[in-house]
Amino acid sequence: MIHFKPELIVFDLDGTLVDSSPDIASAVNKMLVVINQRPLPEQLIKQWLGNGATMLIKRALTGELEPTTEPENLAQAMTIYFDFYASHICVQSKLYTGVIEGLEQLKAAGVKLACVTNKPAQLTLPLLTEIGLKDYFQFIACGDTFTRMKPDPLPLLEAAKACAVQAQQALMVGDSISDIQAGKRANFKTALVPYGYIGKYTLDELDADYNIDKIDQLSNLFY
What we know:
223 residues
């Protein structure tokens, strides 16, 4: 078997590089209190991450993983959530172990790096900047950068195009079904980290090409 040596590695953000769930949960619960709904356990909110802010707030308002109706107060709730989260973007959020070491190793190896997240730009760019990751990436796509987001392959294909790399020479690294599905649909290889927001799925069910424990294992795996 030919050894795979990716020219481009695309990373998800929340649950892959950054554990942002405490700050997200805090913002969700702040919103719920303001609109007179009961706060929710952080662990439950964590299970609802990965499909963008709108779906997260729908889930918080309805208590349903797959909301069947759109809550009437969705727009109000989104505004409250965004306002609070944007001003508390990196209070308790922290990098996962091995992230900086891994990115430094890949950068030294000459690998092109990108970040593709379903988080909207008004939250993504401040978080990347504040936590010290922004300058590692040659390309960043947020949930509202394109008309479609993960699990659609479009943002990944745009990342490959922007970095002048063929899809077959790229790797998607993430923690959720959205990441792995997007990677497979884009014809990328896929790598899964087990510590993020995997939700109701097992590692076997997500069926990534590679399973890694930490980001700093990527360099040893491929280079």
